[in-house]
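PROTOCOL LOG
Step 1. Enter all chains and additional molecules of the complex.
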Amino acid sequence: MKNVYILGSTGSIGVNTLNVIRNFPDRFHVSALTVNTNTQLLLEQINEFKPDLVVVKDKDAAEKVKHQMPANCKLLVGVDGLNNAAAGLEYDIFVGAMVGYAGLAPTIEAIKRGKRIALANKETLVVAGEVVNNYCKEYGAEIIPIDSEHSAIYQCLVGENIDEVEKLIITASGGPFLNKDKSFFEDATIDEALNHPNWKMGNKVTIDSATMMNKGLEVIEAHWLFGLSTEKIDVVIHPQSIIHSMVQFRDGSIKAQMGLPDMKLPIQYALTYPERLQNDFERTNIPAIETLNFYEPNFEKFECLKLAFDVLEVGGTAPCVLNAANEIAVEKFLNNEIRFSRIPVLIEKALEKIGNHQLLNLDTIFECDTETRNFVRNIN
Ligand code: MG
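Step 2. Run joint prediction.
Step 3. Record the structure below.
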């Protein structure tokens, strides 16, 4: 029986993690559920999964549910609650399902305890990849990616030697604006940007897919997960999202991992690796697919993708600036404060303005993140 801590249990990855765990009651026990504000769904989850502890990050939301906790379920509150639970609770697998920079600190706590980290939170590796890798080595923690592209690459690499890899080929659906002209970005509405053709995800990730920043963050994530330089990481547009990514080896052979676009599969793999467990998820009907298309990405149109490759070359705190500026810019777009086309512009302004530190530790990252957010909040 493995005990699971779910950081962010009411978001899209958190809910799917519970959908997987529901199938294997003899294999997994939920130790901790954590949410930001969605206490209504949390109460349903507590009722079904009977965790030992829950954390509600938002203090007002916590106040509302504190009298509805079962006697054997402890309630912690705030960011301290997330960190203390990660640092003190009994669990075997930490599922990093929370979106955004806020997922970093509790993930670090879990790494320091040498746990298995099933990681969906991209920002952990994007802003602190080097620090995270050093901690993993020092404390013996292992990261198994949940992001579908990285899970695909991870699966392609089982039994292979990383030194024999020529390149990683990360597939991208291209998002809702793949076939629109760049001029369309001026007037793109929130609803249009949130209308993803293949994947059902939270709002932040869906907007990131529309700008292709999501793919940019995934390139940085892949760099830290697999230790390969930017020249060895390609992005290819594949609108059907059936091939989740590929690995090309030095003899020219290419391995691809395929399946329906459903996050339950990479989540289950991260929970059960190296085992593959029987499930009844929908199967891919290969003849029904008929065609798989591939195209080069348009870096001129999707400036965010280009910026992500650039910051990986610069290194230091540049990826942290990119990530923080993007989070605020996306928030502003979703609040109707800026046009869709301004998202890369605000990120570029932040990269010009905020000084780069090459010596990384959690303090310099935290300062850089705060400085960038404050800067971007005040420009339009
Ligand atoms: Mg992905």
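Step 4. Note key features.
The radius of gyration is 20 Å.
The pocket of magnesium ion is lined by residues 147-149, 218 (CB under 6 Å).
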